[in-house]
TrEMBL record:
Residues 339-464 form the GGDEF domain. GO terms for molecular function: cyclic-guanylate-specific phosphodiesterase activity. The chain crosses the membrane at residues 104-125, 131-151, 163-183, 195-215, 222-241. PROSITE patterns: EAL, GGDEF. It comes from the Bacteria. Residues 473-724 form the EAL domain. InterPro entries: Cyclic-di-GMP_PDE-like, EAL_dom, EAL_sf, GGDEF_dom, Nucleotide_cyclase, Rev_trsase/Diguanyl_cyclase. It holds the Pfam family EAL. Residues 70-93 are annotated as: Disordered. CDD domains: EAL. This is EAL domain, c-di-GMP-specific phosphodiesterase class I (Or its enzymatically inactive variant). Keywords: Membrane, Transmembrane, Transmembrane helix.
Length: 728
């Protein structure tokens, strides 16, 4: 089932028909090149396949677009409410933009159909096909021009940008004209006619090249324009050459014809999708508008720099969803860096601790603070119930600095309702650089989610790696709940050695998730997700059960190594932890002294008294206890006397011989351990120097890659065989 999942992706489903048509047409062209099929037949079949696929996609696109509202139809029966103005604005938007989009798509469909019919002329009419092909080309060109004019987002870049592109295109244009002149056979006509055709081919080629590779205000419209140019280029080749004289030029017309038709359909779909959505079709989290503000007032909040004509400045309230989408659309057409979008989330007190009126006052005060920070030409728009977005024209670095200033302003204490409290905030930043408004919003929201995951009160910048991390996090959250039932969990064991003679005396169990979808997942990545899903306890009890079963098997073979298992403070502090542990040991017949329960010292925190009680309960039934990740700080040394433990595990930095200032500290730890009757274990030893430092400091036991790496139970058992008297 997981292997089939990628083939159900929508993107692959959309690309499959085009890939199949391209593969089939490639086979036809190869057959025509080796004279298995006539060139005219290949052109007719390829043109028909491309026109059919592009036509189907265009007509489906036209069907999905809503019909224009009837302006003469009275809106009777509609209740008068605060949303009446929203409905009217939505109807106006759909009436002014969507009919134009539908008309454009239908005209492009007519152009593709005419081009497909024109490709059949060489097959049906033979040498007399030129007039029919030329007529079809003119009809396709006329329909395409009208469709491009009606397509949403057909605005052109500034004159200086167009002049620069024209200059850049000069050299390729001359090269294309020269290539066309050299490739045209002399039998095609007199020299002036051949030169005119070569110039036309060069012009069409450079137009298509510029349309497909340039920086555009509307990428979808540019793609559509490039597809029309390539289609016309193929039709010109069909009209110029006679299959009776030379068949190979007809085969050269197939690639631009087919690719051009598919680009027309793809560009039209992208241009319509990038059009700012009306209010009724906008995402739910963008529809909310502040009380007392109409969409017309919110639309007027768009800065003058983001629209063609000046608009009144915003006085009160926030812009709504359509204004935000429109600002991103217009701003995205500027040459990069075009600007940035910041999505701000305020983590307001929940309804149980703060009344709704107080939450509204906090949001109003936050908006007031934000207005004092952002620039006059920046747009503020509401996002959800406890957040807002900022659209700015400045570059990414200045936008990040703006985010820092916003964070500092929003996280200052609030004095409202006779109380003083602080509201955390998370800000996500995404660049506006030619992407569709929906993509920019998604990227900024992903960055905001990352800021929340990393602890709030921070600004996170979107990048592709961030999206990969979030996608992997979602995959982990989806796959982890059933990992135990599917038998995907496994344990590896790292031997613990006595440093005096390098003989193994115990092992530590480490969890591994062998996911067929995600690969091997380590505990550092696994347990945070498990904690968020509230299944960390299930995983820890599985580890304890499997570790006890394994140590029982080793004990049966006359070996008695201890088995260390890590537990979190959340699971250790559960009321029945000691009883359940004793039950697992009894079920497998494991002597209690062979189990070591480890708890991390930095995670004890405020649960110190409960942790002390649970560790004492474990020792009362014979289970040994250990304190892991000992930090050797003053507070740690002070509370060490309170913890009922048998083993103290210190990290490699304490025993590293390089920094002389740390040697006395490890001596203090070892001396305190000796006085309290604790065995000191040096862990994470990765070099021979660290092993020597641990032994010289007085650590009795050690573990790490320099001594033995984690391995499966079978490999660890084979390792034990090298020490016949060890652990017996």
């Amino acid at each position: 089932m997981p292997l089939a999942a990628p083939f159900r992706a929508p993107a692959l489903r959309r690309a499959a028909p085009a890939a199949a048509v391209l593969a089939a047409v490639t086979s036809l062209v190869l057959a025509g090149a080796v004279h298995l099929l006539a060139a005219a037949t290949v052109v007719a079949l390829a043109g028909g396949a491309g026109a059919t696929l592009a036509g189907v996609r265009l007509i489906r696109l036209a069907i999905r677009l809503p019909a224009p509202p009837d302006p003469h139809l009275p809106a009777t029966g509609a209740p008068e409410s605060a949303s009446t103005s929203n409905i009217a604005a939505d109807a106006h938007v759909r009436g002014t933009r969507r009919p134009s989009a539908r008309r454009a798509v239908l005209l492009l469909h007519a152009a593709v159909t005419a081009a497909g019919l024109a490709t059949a002329a060489p097959l049906l009419l033979g040498p007399e096909h030129r007039v029919a092909t030329a007529a079809g080309s003119v009809l396709a060109a006329a329909s395409a021009v009208l469709g491009l004019r009606a397509l949403p987002g057909r605005s052109l870049p500034p004159v200086r940008v167009r002049l620069r592109r024209l200059v850049d295109a000069g050299t390729p244009a001359v090269a294309l004209v020269l290539a066309g002149w050299l490739l045209l056979p002399r039998a095609a006509g007199p020299a002036p006619a051949r030169f005119a055709v070569a110039a036309l081919l060069g012009a069409l080629g450079i137009i298509g090249l510029t349309a497909l590779t340039g920086v555009h205000r509307r990428p979808g419209t540019a793609t559509c324009r490039g597809g029309v140019t390539l289609t016309l280029l193929g039709l010109v080749l069909l009209a110029v050459f006679d299959p009776a004289v030379a068949a190979w030029p007809l085969l050269l017309a197939v690639p631009p014809l087919l690719v051009g038709m598919l680009l027309v359909a793809a560009g039209a779909a992208r241009a319509v999708a990038a059009e700012p959505a009306p209010l009724s079709s906008a995402p739910a989290w963008l529809r909310a508008a502040p009380a007392g503000e109409s969409p017309s007032q919110a639309t007027a909040a768009v800065p003058a720099a983001l629209v063609a004509a000046p608009v009144p400045p915003m006085l009160d309230g926030l812009a709504d969803g359509p204004a935000l989408l429109r600002a991103l659309t217009v701003l995205g057409g500027n040459p990069p860096p075009a600007g940035a979008l910041l999505v701000v989330e305020l983590h307001l007190p929940d309804g149980d601790t703060a009344p709704r009126a107080l939450r509204a006052d906090v949001l109003a005060e936050a908006v007031r603070r934000a207005r004092a920070v952002v620039g006059r030409r920046d747009l503020l728009a509401q996002v959800g119930e406890a957040g807002f977005a900022v659209v700015t024209e400045v570059g990414p670095m200045l936008a990040y600095a703006l985010g820092d200033r916003l964070l500092a302003a929003l996280t200052r204490p609030y004095q409202l309702g006779g109380a003083v409290f602080r509201v955390p905030a998370s800000i996500g930043l995404a660049e506006v650089s030619g992407e569709s408004p929906q993509d920019v919003l998604r990227q900024a929201d992903l960055a905001r989610r990352r800021a929340v995951q990393l602890g709030r009160d921070r600004v996170e910048w979107y990048d592709a790696f961030l999206e990969e991390q979030l996608v992997r996090r979602l995959d982990l959250e989806r796959e982890l709940p059933g990992a135990v039932a599917r038998g995907e969990l496994d344990l590896v064991y790292q031997p613990v050695l006595r440093l005096g003679d390098r003989r193994p005396v115990g092992t530590e169990a480490f969890l591994r998730w062998r996911s067929p979808v995600l690969g091997t997942v380590l505990p550092d990545e696994l347990f945070p997700v498990a904690a968020d899903l509230d299944i960390a306890g299930e995983l820890e009890w599985w580890v304890l059960d499997r570790a006890c079963r394994q140590v029982a098997e080793w004990t049966a073979s006359s070996r008695q190594p201890w088995m260390a298992v890590n537990v979190t403070t959340g699971e250790l502090t559960t009321p029945d932890f000691v009883q359940r542990t004793a039950a697992v040991l009894a079920a497998y017949g494991v002597p209690p002294e062979q189990l070591v329960v480890e708890v991390s010292e930095p995670r004890i925190g405020v649960e110190l008294s409960t942790v002390v009680a649970r560790l004492a309960g474990l020792r009362s039934v014979g289970v040994r206890t250990a304190l892991d990740d000992f930090r050797a700080e003053h507070a740690s040394l002070a509370q060490l006397r309170r913890l009922p433990i048998d083993l103290l595990k210190v990290g490699a930095p304490l025993v590293d011989p390089a920094p002389d200032t740390q040697r006395p500290l490890i001596d203090v730890v070892v001396n305190v351990g000796d006085r309290l009757g604790l065995e000191v274990v040096a862990e994470d030893l990765e070099s021979a120097a660290q092993v020597r430092g641990a032994r010289r400091a007085g650590c009795r036991y050690g573990q790490g890659f320099a001594l033995a790496r984690p391995a499966t139970a079978e490999r660890v058992e084979a390792y034990f065989e090298e020490f016949p008297s060890a652990s017996r």
